[in-house]
Design a protein that fits this description.
Layout lengths: L4 E2 L3 E5 L2 E5 L3 E2 L17 E8 L2 E8 L4 H12 L10 E3 L3 E4 L20 E2 L11 E6 L10 E9 L12 E7 L1 H8 L15 E6 L1
Antiparallel strand pairs: 1-4, 2-3, 5-6, 5-13, 6-12, 7-8, 8-11, 9-11, 10-11, 10-12
Length: about 200
Amino acid sequence: MTQKLFFVLFCLAMAGCTMQKDLTKQQPLKKDTPVEQKTEAPKSTIVVIETSKGSITVQLDGENAPRHTANFIKLARQNFYSGTTFHRVIPGFMIQGGDPNSKNEDRTTHGAGGPEYKIDAEIGLTHERGVIAAARQGDQVNPKRQSSGSQFYITVVPTRHLDGQYSVFGKVIKGMEVVDAIAEVKRDVRDNPLDPIVIQKVSVQ
């Protein structure tokens, strides 16, 4: 049976009102094959995400999130992210990318793809402005809060209401103006930029 994968709905209190947004909706992965749970990664690795809007430099935290760091490095070295897009952007919140489906013209599939494995949760780091964290299925089908294989998001503001729910594995150290610019582009009803924001390459320094 096919089910939609989606991020947990969360609440934001603003001016006495409650707003609800979900981070992503994804199709179910075809099979669950977690990455090696004893993965070791460098304590600190720099990666550069080159986009059609400019470059974003990220410092990965291999000490606190070794599995996510190792996975991101592996995919970068495989050129997995080249040609994908930031398929969901929300001003004052985050930008999300890393889905291989976003290479396709059919926008209804964007946000539904990725490798056929999950990564065990490494929850602990907080959601400050400019952190990079992993997308995942919702708690209903994913009580262990394992991360999906490739999709990630970068916050444009502190989003502390997400603390304890998602695996943060690094932080932007250069190029936040690029992240901010991406978050403000015109988008469709799915929050997908009208003019695709393409990830040209992710380089490991």
